[in-house]
Each structure stands twice: as C-alpha cells, then as structure tokens.
Design goal:
Layout: H1 2-10, E1 15-19, H2 25-34, E2 38-42, H3 46-53, H4 64-73, E3 75-78, E4 89-92, H5 107-116, E5 124-128, H6 136-147, E6 156-160, E7 179-183, H7 186-197, E8 203-205, H8 209-240, H9 244-251, H10 275-283, H11 291-317, E9 326-330, H12 345-355, E10 359-363, H13 389-393, E11 397-400, H14 409-415, E12 419-421, E13 433-435
Parallel strand pairs: 1-2, 1-4, 2-3, 4-5, 5-6, 7-8, 9-10, 9-11, 11-12, 12-13
Antiparallel strand pairs: 6-7
C-alpha cells in the first residue's frame, strides 16, 4: 500500500490536506498548488476560509494574488473535518504553545488529531509539523491511530517533519528551505519523503520521528542560547559604557568561529521563546536538568523588565515618573518588517508599562490594530498611531522595540524628548537616546 501512495505523490495525483492555515500551513498549501497538487485546507477560523475563497490574504507577506491564483486552480478551504477521507496526506500545522506553568500545551495537536482520526481511512499519511518534544509522534499520535484499528507502516503512515518558516524572509522560502523528515517505520519514512519531495528542493531523512523532533528543538535552542548570551553581554557592555552593537559588528568581521546574534527587548516568534521549554520539560522525565538552556531562557525572559528599568531611569533623569507618563512603543510585531505578533516582547513591555501607570500607545504600520492574544490577559484597545513630528513630540518617551524599515528614524530622533533604543538603531552618542 505504501508504494501506491508514494507513486500518487510522485505523479502529483494525490490530494494534500493541510490542517491549520496560519503562518506555516498557508505557505505550504500554496507551495503544493504551485506544483500542480490539489490542496484542501482545513481551519476552524471561518474568517480565514472566507478570505481564501475570495482570494484574499490575511498574512501580510503573502500577496492576495498568489492565493487567488491557487484558488482558481487547485486550492480550497473548509472547516468540515468530515471531508478528511478526500485527502491522501494530512499535514498538521497547529500551535504548540506553553501553558501558564511554562509546560508544553499539546491540546491543539491532540484535540485536532482526535477530531481527525474518526474520519481517516486506510492509505493516508499523517504528518505533524508543529514543534514539540521528542516522543510526541510515537507516544501520542501513533496510539490514536492504532486505536482506530490502523497498523502504522502498513495501512496508514505517520511522520514528523518540523516546519522551518521564517515570515518575511527574502533569501529563503518554503521551496528552498531543506525539509527534515522522520518516520515511525521505514515505510512511513519513504512515504514522507515522497510527500515533500515534489515541492521542496531538498528533503533530509533522519532515522526516527524522535530525531526529527529533536532536530527542530536544537535549531531553535541554538538561537535562544546565543541570543541569551548576547543579551547578557549587552548588560555588561552597558555598565562599562561600551556600545554592544559596535562590538558585535567588529567581532563579525572574523571569517570563522563567530556568528553574529543581536540583543533586543526579549524573544519573540512562534518558536524560539517556546521550544527550549519543550526539551527542558521532557528531559526531566529522564532525570536530566538542562541548566544551560534554562539559564538562557531566564535571561531572555528578563529583557522586558530590563528595558522597563531603563525607561524608568531615563524618565527620572528628566524629573518624570513612569506613572502618568505618555509612552509610545515603536513596533508591535516580534521582528522587523512583518505583521507577526506571536510571543512579541513588545506586547509584554506594553503590558508592564500599563501596569505601572503609563499611558501607552504604539505605532506599527504592519499591525493596524492588536487583536486579543491567547498568551496575554490584557486587551490593548488603541489602534496604530501614525507618526508625525507633532505626534512624536507629544510623548514623554519613545521606545524602539521593533526596528521596521518604515519608520522615519531621523524624524523620530529629532522630535523625541527621549528615545529608548532596544535595537541599536541609533549609533554613536545622542543626548536624547538611551540604549537598552
């Protein structure tokens, strides 16, 4: 049976089902349609389904005309899971956040799987792309398929292939980013390689789903640890009166042995702030204490508080208290030039400022308004503030949290009473700039 499925993928005669049409699922769906596959997307958000049917984008860096072209050819979306038997592949791209105790929350993965399994048929492959701890695919998904009566590796197939999306990136895309695939069995791996081989330039097989799951964690823990290191170096440099960005730029001229990482107001995005905790949680099952990873997590999590302290000190130098001050935060997205706000440290900082009595506004041309975020209890009702010299001059302090290209930095510098720069945008000395 697995050979029949492999041929269907290679001949592009298969139907691809993608569950979760967000920052991971939507680009993948478009990639398949661009190669001639028929794609059926599933999502519980009816707004997304409506927009797709109209050929409209809801993700800034994905143009509407790309969706419209896909819909006119081989792409449609639904919230009806009873249509699962129509597809040959089921790719899960749903969130894997942390709960309030900083422990893995697999409810989206498991609840979705439980909703899918009753409608699954023999001859399908289920691929999990959501980042998780090693063992999730074998320990959680496989038993659910076996309970249905399937024999994994014979009449149904199960793989883990971690997503590697980086929203807004120009030099790599879904097609050109290599894809790691691990299968529960040899047959599962062969099916998984065929599933992705037709749309990804390079597919990288590993020996097991656990190895694939650990690969994704290592990638993002590597970044989290190095960002934690440079955030700590930033604090030391600040105490010594050294510009950390000047030091990083100088160190980056070394052609070997150094990779530049840059400090900021904290970690953001759907992976790097979360993934390390998936491994530290699972490692405790094996009586292993991941001290190095946890230390980096503590440093990165402390950055919004460090920035808050710098704001307070800057206001104090102007004989102002934070309570009652008007603060403008530049950038709500977690990184520059995108509309992605997942785990954004800007939102954490805005919450802290409000709790300490500041009147807070934000400016972000990529985020016209801030929706309710599941990881934040507060609601930010105000919409994006358009910047003019008069508007900027009306605030007691401007906090540069995300360095979008769209900001007029010379104008902001000229008209601000205080600029708290968390991104190293303003080099050299400026009387009204505090580096944080």
């Amino acid at each position: 049976m697995h050979q029949d499925l492999v041929r269907k993928f290679r001949d592009k005669k298969s139907v691809i089902g993608i569950v979760g049409l967000g920052y991971v699922g939507l680009p993948l769906a478009l990639r398949y349609t661009e190669e001639g596959y028929t794609v059926l997307g599933f999502d519980i958000d009816q707004n997304k389904i409506t927009k797709i049917a109209k050929g409209e984008s809801y993700i800034e860096h994905i143009p509407s005309d790309r969706i419209a072209t896909a819909v006119q050819t081989h792409f449609s979306a639904t919230s009806d899971f009873t249509r699962i038997p129509e597809v040959d592949a089921i790719i899960l791209a749903v969130p894997t956040p942390l709960n309030k105790y900083r422990e893995p929350d697999l409810s989206y993965v498991l609840d979705t799987t439980d909703s899918l399994v009753p409608y699954m048929r023999k001859g399908q492959v289920l691929s999990l792309e959501s980042t998780t701890y090693p063992g999730t695919t074998d320990e959680e998904l496989k038993p659910r398929l076996e309970k249905k009566g399937f024999v994994v590796g014979q009449d149904t197939f199960l793989v883990f292939s971690p997503e590697r999306e980086d929203p807004g990136r120009k030099d790599f895309n879904t097609k050109t980013i290599p894809k790691v695939v691990g299968g529960c069995t040899k047959n599962c791996l062969e099916v998984g390689l065929a599933l992705y081989g037709g749309v990804i330039d390079r597919v990288v097989p590993v020996s097991s789903t656990k190895a694939a799951e650990m690969t994704k964690l290592l990638e993002n823990i590597h970044r989290a640890v190095n960002i934690g290191l440079v955030n700590e170096i930033k604090i030391v440099c600040d105490k010594m009166g050294i510009d950390v960005h000047e030091v990083i730029d100088a160190a980056a001229t070394k052609p070997f042995g150094f990779v530049a990482y840059y400090p900021g107001p904290g970690l953001g995005g759907h992976c790097i702030p979360i993934d390390p905790f998936y491994l530290t949680w699972k490692a405790r099952e094996y009586n292993v204490h991941t001290r190095f990873i946890e230390l980096a997590g503590e440093i990165n999590a402390s950055m919004p508080s460090y920035v808050l302290k710098k704001i307070v000190m800057a206001l104090n130098s102007h004989k102002k208290s934070l309570n009652g001050s008007r603060i403008l935060v530049l950038g709500a997205a977690y990184k520059e030039n995108v509309d992605d706000m997942r785990e954004s440290p800007s939102l954490v900082l805005m919450d802290k400022l409000q709790r300490h009595g500041a009147t807070v506004e934000y400016s972000d041309p990529h985020v016209p308004e801030i929706p309710h975020m599941r990881e934040h209890n507060f609601r930010f009702e105000q919409k994006h503030t358009v910047l003019t010299p008069e508007v900027v001059a009306g605030f007691d302090a401007v906090v540069l949290s995300t360095a979008h290209k769209a900001f007029d930095y010379p104008m902001i510098l000229k008209n601000s009473k205080l600029v708290i720069d968390t991104r190293g945008k303003y080099r050299g000395h400026h009387d009204n700039v505090i580096k944080a």
